[in-house]
Design a protein that fits this description.
By secondary structure, the chain is α+β, with helices and mostly antiparallel strands. 51% of the residues lie in helices and 16% in strands. β4 and β5 form a beta hairpin. α9 packs antiparallel against α10 and α10 packs antiparallel against α11.
């Protein structure tokens, strides 16, 4: 593995950081999350038109830039630094790869160029609090029980009038209230032959109701999506196997989330170090006390280790190694530690609603609720690697 970044990768990072510094400061962030969309559409347009961010990892023949997961992860690291609320995760990380992997030629030709240009936003709707399971991050479910169906709830699909109709509900859909396209996981077929398929639902489809939910992390908006005999289009053909595609997607998602968490952890550590270097107590800067230095040093080691793990995981995706879950676990733990120490070392101001320290802590906690928790990410990684089986021999 060559740990050095290319000039192009460094340029992506530098340009994106400059743009976000100008367009996504603390005040702009608070304004954006209070809008109905939960993000600044003008910022999203700039990210798409100036940097091609939505299509960064899409092939050039589909309107994308043709980069790898590594470049997408570096972009996520920069958006994570400022907790930039945008449809990037829902559209480019969670949804676009599924369209590319499973879609028909007609579906790819229609949807992917629009996603790459930023004109179309999308979201992945998975029933219940099962996103981590569906992506294979915290467990395997080869039968798709997480999708519900029938008396188990979730979303049920049936054929009617020459098409498909969906009935059910998904409660924690990232950017589901504003996405123009939903990719919905649903059960199709009777109980004995039930299987999970993915369906395309337009944002203006009849029978579709979307309500933005109050989320712990306001920078990562969620919605409840209700489908009442809603018209849908099957993604790919009936032979398209959704479960393996979702499981393969899981490692890419984990890598991008890990990079986001590393960016956020690094930024909150920087802010904390700056603050304790300025604030004085007993006639000297707080940061000059040995106990404070030790606490910051411990966080620094965690952040650097998590950054190395995230970069390696991004490289490993292209070499068919599955280590994203472990990288995500380490990154989320580093972010939680950095945010907690940041709140403590900022003193009284760190506990106030007006200061942004609490937003970083909520990002760590919110990501654990959606994609973790840390101990389950590690336990599943150990199970996949047969760690305990080897130890028991």
């Amino acid at each position: 593995m060559d740990a050095r970044f290319t000039a192009e990768q460094d340029e992506i990072r530098r340009t994106l950081r400059e743009l976000l510094h100008k367009r996504c400061g603390p005040e702009e962030l608070r304004t954006a999350v209070d809008t109905p969309a939960g993000h600044d559409p003008a910022l999203w347009t700039a990210l798409a038109e100036q940097l091609g961010l939505p299509g960064l990892a899409l092939p050039e023949d589909r309107g994308g830039v043709g980069c790898s997961v590594t470049e997408l992860a570096l972009a996520c690291e920069e958006t994570g630094r400022v907790l930039a609320p945008s449809p990037l995760l829902a559209t480019a990380v969670l949804t676009a790869p599924l369209l590319l992997a499973l879609g028909t030629d007609a579906q790819r030709a229609e949807l992917l160029p629009r996603i790459a240009s930023g004109r179309l936003t999308a979201a992945l709707a998975v029933p219940g609090p099962a996103l981590a399971t569906a992506l294979g991050l915290t467990g395997h479910d080869r039968r798709g029980k997480w999708a519900g169906g029938g008396r188990a709830g979730g979303v049920q699909a049936r054929q009617a009038d020459g098409g498909w109709r969906l009935y059910g509900q998904a409660d924690q859909v990232l950017d589901g209230h504003s996405a123009q396209l939903l990719v919905v996981a649903a059960h199709a077929g009777g109980f004995a032959r039930s299987r999970v398929l993915l369906f395309l639902v337009r944002g203006d489809a009849a029978g579709l109701t979307r309500v933005r939910q109050t989320a712990l992390d306001v920078t990562r908006p969620q919605a409840r999506v209700q489908l009442r005999h809603t018209s849908a289009e099957l993604l790919g053909g009936t032979d398209a196997d959704a479960l393996p595609a979702l499981a393969r997607l899981g490692d890419t998602v984990a890598v991008c989330l890990a990079a986001e968490a590393v960016g956020a952890a690094g930024r909150v550590l920087e802010r904390t170090a700056e603050y304790v270097g300025r604030r004085e107590q007993f006639g000297r800067p707080v940061g000059s006390f040995q106990a404070v230095k030790h606490r910051l040093a411990d966080v620094y080691v965690q952040v650097q280790a998590a950054r190395s793990a995230a970069y390696y995981a991004a490289w490993a995706v292209a070499h068919e190694e599955t280590v994203g879950g472990l990288a995500l676990a380490q990154a989320l733990q580093a972010l939680r530690s950095a945010a907690a120490e940041g709140i403590q070392l900022h003193g009284g101001i760190g506990f106030t609603w007006e200061h942004e320290a609490h937003l970083y802590f909520k990002r760590a906690a919110g990501d654990e609720l959606l994609f973790g928790p840390v101990h389950r990410l590690r336990a599943h990684a150990a199970e996949v690697a047969h760690v305990f089986e080897e130890a028991g021999r």
